[in-house]
Amino acid sequence: MRDDAFRPDAIDLHLLRELQADGNLTNQELAERVGLSASPCLRRVKALEEAGVIEKRVVLLDRKRLGLSLTAIIQISMDRHTPERFDRFEKTVKRYPEVVACHLVTGQQADYVLMVVVPSMDEYQDFLLNKLTRIEGVTGVHSSFVMRRVVDTTELPLKYLTPA
User: Fold this and answer.
1) Would you tell me the crossing angle of helices 38-50 and 27-34 to the nearest 10 degrees?
2) Are residues 99 and 55 in the same domain?
3) What pLDDT digit, counting tens, does each position of 10-60 carry?
4) Tally of domains within the chain
5) Hey, how many other C-beta atoms are within 10 angstroms of the C-beta on 150?
6) Which domain holds residue 17?
7) 132: closest CA among 83, 89, 72, 80?
8) Inter-residue contact 75 to 108 (CB < 8 Å)
9) Do residues 29 and 92 share a domain?
10) Which of 12, 51, 67, 115 is the most buried (most CB within 10 A)?
């Protein structure tokens, strides 16, 4: 663990586990699950938020029920490896709501790996041809399509953290 990494105690870890599993818990429910009264529980959660450990709380939506049934994993190759080129690419893909993840990677032929969610292959083709391949510097695109999501979680493996 890095020296500047947050060092939670056992109660903080318990709070984080409970919140990762169900971010919709009321403060009272959370306090009961971790064995605190409501006020100390709220103070600890606020401290975790202020420390940046809890970035934000979200609602997870069911892609299929919303008609967003096609997930593509796209490997992107760039023509030049310059900070300006990468910055321009990253600023552009951040504007596309179809892109649910974008990672700069190493160890592959690709420079970036994107996860894109759209309703169908027609919408994917439109996204690919009218948005992605028009970004300056994109020289290669390799697409794979998710057949089934076997593990798809937002929960981090907190077992690697040891209480302070």
Assistant:
1) 100
2) no
3) 999 999 999 999 999 999 999 999 999 999 999 999 999 999 999 999 999
4) 2
5) 6
6) 10-59
7) 89
8) yes
9) no
10) 12
Q: What is the predicted pLDDT for the residue at 3?
A: 57
CB crowding 103-129: b at 16 or more within 10 Å, else e = eeeeeeebbbbbebbbeeeeebeebbe
Whole-number pLDDT of residue 147 = 97
pTM above threshold 0.70: yes
Domain with 15 in it: what CATH number? 1.10.10.10
Domain annotation covers residue 159: no
Pair (74, 141) in one structural domain? yes
Beta strand 70-78 with 112-118 is antiparallel
Q: Which residues pair with 74 in a beta bridge?
A: 114, 143
In the structure, what pLDDT confidence band is assigned to residue 1 with cuts at 50, 70 and 90? very low
Helix (H) / strand (E) containing 99: strand 99-104
Which residue in the block uniquely carries the two structure tokens 């809890």? 54
> Residue 41: how many CB atoms within 10 A of its CB?
21
Q: On the CB side of 138, how many CA atoms lie within 13 Å of its CA?
A: 22
Q: Within a domain: residue 46?
A: yes
Instruction: Show the tokens assigned to 86.
Output: 């990468």
Residue 133 forms part of a structural domain: yes
